[in-house]
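Let's see one such:

===
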Amino acid sequence: MLISGLVKMVSEDFVRTEFAPWETQNPMPWFEKLPDNVSWHICGTLNPKAGTYNSKAEVIAVFGELMSKVAGPPACKITNVLPSGDSAVVEMFFHAIAKNGWHFDQELCWVCKYEAGLCVSVRLYVDSAAEVKLFEEN
């Protein structure tokens, strides 16, 4: 975000506070803060959900599809936050039990861009093979 021609830097504390709902097993408050026109890209070539989503509604729908494949809420842990200017890289460990009993574990990497205190874009790097297995077997 620009303030008097300067890029407003995001801090590690700010990003950790924003991502705190992920560590409560109820990440919906994080999603609710997204702007309606968020740009969200899930990386991967085989991942059934890879692609670009251009609205909060689309992002929440994709997350809902993922959650429909697991038996309960995810357990997440933010393992690293690397802020840089108006962006931050967030590393997260994600654990859920699939409906078939398989442990769906992910080491996620989020590259988030912020404007006026809102996360306006995300590039999400995931384990595509694990997502394929989750969607095919559950």
